[in-house]
Design brief:
There is one protein chain. Helices cover 43% and strands 25% of the residues. It is α/β, with parallel strands linked by helices. The protein folds into two domains: 121 residues, Response regulator (Rossmann fold, 3-Layer(aba) Sandwich); 90 residues, Winged helix-like DNA-binding domain superfamily/Winged helix DNA-binding domain (Arc Repressor Mutant, subunit A, Orthogonal Bundle). Strands 2-1-3-6-7 form a five-stranded parallel sheet, with helices on both faces. Helix 1 links the parallel strand 1 and strand 2. It is elongated. 29% of the residues are buried.
Length: 220
Amino acid sequence: MDVRVLLVEDDLRVASALAKALRRRGHEVVPALTAAEAVRADAVDLVLLALDLPDGDGLEVCRRLRQADEDVAIIALSARAEAYDRVAGLRAGADDYVVKPFSSVELQARIEAVLRRTARSVRATSELRVGRLRIDVHARRAWLGDREVGLARKEFDLLVALARQAGTVVPRDRLQLDVWQTTWGTRHNLDVHVAALRGKLDDAGLVQTVRGVGYRLRAG
């Protein structure tokens, strides 16, 4: 299972060991040593979030990450093992709570379980609504108000990727991975499909360009 992982851990020794273990499993690791780096990071599939950070409350970071992406898998990592701490972590938006110290085997099993649950949750979300835009993901149909919008396959995939994070900027490389499953040689394709999508939606301001970063679907 090859996923993009945001590893938020300020202990360099622990972070290095975790990163090596994740990369051995074929995962891509995005390191963050602080709360500030964590909330600025690009979109990922999974977050491993240490709750004791030098510049902020890990629970607040968890809340912000969950608000930014309701589908991302989040596993909280903490030495605090009381039931209250576990409940606080889960209520902040974590999908699982792992107490330090833990083995790499246990962590990998938790990762696989959380990703299975979040994948089922995403698949179960058949309808997306963003303002006047309605998308039936399973039927691969979209409407703007009462008008059905006819979209090519990649245009539809692009619209869904943007709608899942409506109101937030989705980086170009994330869109390329979601729609084409690679970032190699797809930059021009992305621009062409965004232009085509805008034309078919007949609302130039609905898909917004954030120069040098990516695109955002206007919320509301």
